[in-house]
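Sequence in, structure out.
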Amino acid sequence: MLDVQRIEAATPAGRDRGVDALRAVAIAGVVLGHWLVSAWERNPHLVISSPLAYLPQLAPVSWVLQLLAVFFLVGGYAAARGVREPYRSWVAERLVRLAMPVVPLLLAWVAVGTLVSVLNGQPITSVYALAKSALGPLWFLGVFAALTALTPWLVKAGFTTVVVAVGVVAVVDLLRFGLGAPGVLGWVNLVAAWLVPYLLGILWARGDLRPRRHGPWLLAGGGAAALALVVWGGYPAPMVGVTGQSVSNLSPPSLAAVCFGLAQAGLALLLHEPLSRLMRRPRLWAPVVLANLSAMSIFLWHQTALALTVLAFDLYGRPDTPAWVLERLAWLPVVGLVLALMTWCRHRLDVGRRFW
């Protein structure tokens, strides 16, 4: 049981509860989204699959649960509020904090891979399919670490840098989709695209980005641009990567994903004040605190919890029917319990106490 009153009493008076609530919502959306779209089927060995490859009508779900831009927005906000001199020691401390919790995850997958291959007789290709999905969230930490290292310079940037970053993504997309440039060029967008919400978070912390003034414009403009790019620009509807799809909005990020992120940032800005008021209620605030304290564990281990549950209960199959979706929904409480146990173990080991 959560000691609601003790958590409330321990919360500093100046704590921005609205930002913590936004981070908790982003965590919940990313985890639930991954659990719903990650699948494995035998062909004849295990291969990564997705219900979005067979049930395209589910694409709108990704518009609700793909909340990575909110992660970067609040990450930039927190970084700008906490950055201090000497910058080198601040950056080093943040990078160590991000890197240390990754070590147990990698060691665990060495052990899991060995057991699955040796004891369960799975070929290395099947182990790879499981591990690839489970370790997929590490790309986020890589990009976030790069932006963290750049924060001492980014805190001096302005709206012009945001426009330039969006322009870089647009040019890269034009080159690879319109002019036949090599697809590898798209990985330039990996930093440029996520720089946009991260820098918006910095501008928000500085007071240059005002929720009531800029939020509606970001929400309306970004949403309209993302919709137009999907309807008339040929971009795929899902805002996540889909197995077998030649063009992805996320791997690497596309202009549609950037516009979608602008809309998310606008909505987050508008929700910040109402969420701050709601978080004054201790019973609502306590779960948000718990989610933020466990954010790194949840983010790093949630796909491992899913992979181990699928492996233990032999939950393979082609995700091509509504029945598969209902079955996955029914299994989510079990996956949640596995993740809760992993999170408890992580805190017992006290590996990397804080996420941001």
